[in-house]
TrEMBL record:
It comes from Caenibius tardaugens NBRC 16725. The lineage of its organism: Bacteria, Pseudomonadati, Pseudomonadota, Alphaproteobacteria, Sphingomonadales. It holds the Pfam family Trypsin_2. This is Probable periplasmic serine endoprotease DegP-like. InterPro entries: PDZ (IPR001478), PDZ_sf (IPR036034), Pept_S1C_Do (IPR011782), Peptidase_S1_PA (IPR009003), Peptidase_S1C (IPR001940). Keywords: Hydrolase, Periplasm, Protease, Repeat, Serine protease, Signal, Stress response. Belongs to the peptidase S1C family. One of its GO terms (molecular function) is serine-type endopeptidase activity.
Length: 503
């Protein structure tokens, strides 16, 4: 978790329950079909006398999810210097993570957050375990995951059916409605908290196609991620996902992925289907008060186009930097219904009208929506973008696992795409690979190689991909070479030759 002010991932430990009758939907669904029972459990007006009956029915379907991971750790330079343990090749350590989830079918499909079951950094998840409220453990298989929406589906098995809960209709949620969250904060086991819906469709400002949450003051803490948020019908209207906190603990501002967003994605993941989203290829920002004043338009409506990616859907449709997009496919672009969200939920290949303002005049263009790249591909495209500052963050997300190159040279490299080439200020057609990270203890670091450098040649051979560089490294080692001669180009400078000792 990040503990600074801002939206932080908060693992919510699981513990929601279902009807004790195996294979029957949680008590919420039973109550929904039996109005007399529902009236006795949940008063229709005012504060509930107790959440005990509802919790008893739901808690058996909420589970604890733990993973065992193998993580790479940096070498200890002092250990290497003095010949101590830890100074040799790449070191690894074992780590564990905890989160929550809930069972949605009698045959054992479990929903959770993607970040609960994704390894940190360059780690690898070795095993996933689902623990029931009674302490019974089951090995889990990862069925599918989606980084963009932060959702994942697991599968567990046993001879008899599992208790389960069902998704509700989050579009019916209203500010002030009571909600109950069940999870395992800080590894304490099944924990129930209650509160109200503080806001619906909250945009946190973190960007992305799914920055649209239900906000609640129900206490949500680390370990609750992936757990369910229930309405008073006992249906899942949200998946607890993140908190806003200066300390890392709950301060009454938690966020859940709305069921109306999560359920269609979960259904596709359960079927093994890939998640395809729409994409225009533009860089945007909200129309704040200052921007609106400079353009002479109303603020908090529409989004401003900063730049358009050449050759992609928006460029082909005629969108330009400086345009203000007001509507997409007839839907208003607002802070609660962002341009990214609207486009992401349109099937690639669909032709849509886009209403915009250009030079003070309203006009409409038609665009054929493209396919949104994966989160890894987007991270690569933005990795060296001077406008995002990502090149200074040390984020190696998107770096290819070119083990031989990293082991021999102490650098990680990724392909040089046209998008990255433009960000680095070189022609789109430039051939080479980009340095995504440098081991500070390597000769490459000592020679001045840094993130964003472009490797054009190695031992006078053109390098067109990470695989080609790996082949050259292998050949140099086979020839008993002690070093590799790289031709390196840095933004704004000429290409220079730099000899790097092989490790």
């Amino acid at each position: 978790m990040r503990y600074a002010y801002g939206v932080t991932s908060a693992l919510l430990i699981g513990g929601a329950m279902v009807s004790l009758v195996s294979g029957v939907p949680a008590g919420a669904q039973v109550a929904q079909n039996d109005e007399s029972e529902m009236r006795s459990v949940v008063p229709r007006a005012g504060a509930p006398a107790s959440f005990a009956d509802l919790t008893e029915q739901l808690a058996p379907a909420v589970v604890n999810i733990s993973t065992r991971q193998r993580l790479k750790v940096p070498n200890n330079p002092l250990a290497q210097l003095f010949g101590m343990p830890g100074g040799g090749g790449p070191q690894t350590r074992e780590a564990q993570s905890l989160g929550s989830g809930f069972i949605v079918t009698a045959d054992g499909y479990v929903v959770t957050n993607n970040h609960v079951i994704t390894a940190e950094g360059q780690g690898e998840v070795e095993s996933i375990t689902v623990t029931m409220p009674d302490g019974t453990e089951y090995p889990a298989q990862l069925v599918g995951r989606d980084a963009a929406s932060d959702l994942a589906v697991l599968k567990i098995q046993r001879p008899k059916p599992f208790p389960f809960v069902e998704f509700g209709d989050s579009s019916r949620a209203r500010v002030g409605d009571w909600v109950v969250a069940i999870g395992n904060p800080f590894g304490l086991g099944g924990t129930v908290t209650s509160g109200i819906v503080s806001a619906v469709y909250r945009n946190t400002g973190s960007g992305g196609a799914y920055d649209r949450y239900i906000q609640t003051d129900a206490s949500i803490n680390r370990g609750n991620s992936g757990g369910p948020m229930f309405d008073m019908r006992g249906q899942v209207i949200g998946i607890n996902n993140a908190i806003f906190s200066p300390s890392g603990g709950s301060v009454g501002i938690g966020f859940a992925i709305p069921a109306e967003v999560a359920q269609p994605i979960v259904q596709k993941l359960m079927k093994g289907q890939s998640i395809e989203r729409g994409y225009l290829g533009i860089r945007i920002q909200p129309v704040n008060e200052d921007l609106a004043a400079s353009l002479g338009i109303a603020h908090n409506r529409g989004e401003f186009v900063q730049a358009v990616e050449p050759g992609l859907a928006a460029d082909k449709a005629g969108l330009q930097g400086g345009d203000v997009v007001l509507k997409v496919d007839g839907k208003d672009v607002t802070p609660d219904q962002t341009l990214s969200y609207l486009v992401a939920n349109i099937a690639p290949g669909t032709r849509i009208p886009i209403e915009l303002i250009r030079d003070g005049q309203r006009r409409t263009v038609n665009a054929t929506v493209g396919k949104r790249p994966s989160e890894e591909e987007l991270a690569r495209q933005q990795m060296f973008d001077p406008e995002t500052g990502a090149q200074n963050q040390g984020n190696d997300q998107g770096a290819e696992k070119t083990g031989k190159v990293e082991e021999a040279l102490g650098v990680q490299v990724i392909p040089l795409t046209p998008q990255i080439a433009r960000q680095l200020g070189v022609p789109d057609a430039t051939k080479g690979v980009v340095v995504a990270g440098v081991d500070p203890n390597s000769d490459a670091a000592a020679k001045g190689l840094q993130r964003g450098d472009i490797v054009l040649q190695a031992n006078y051979k053109a390098v067109g991909s990470p695989a080609e560089l790996e082949q050259i490294v292998t050949a140099a080692k086979s020839a008993k070479r002690d070093a590799l001669l790289l031709q390196v180009q840095r933004r704004g400078g000429p290409a220079l030759y730099v000899p790097i000792r092989l490790r």
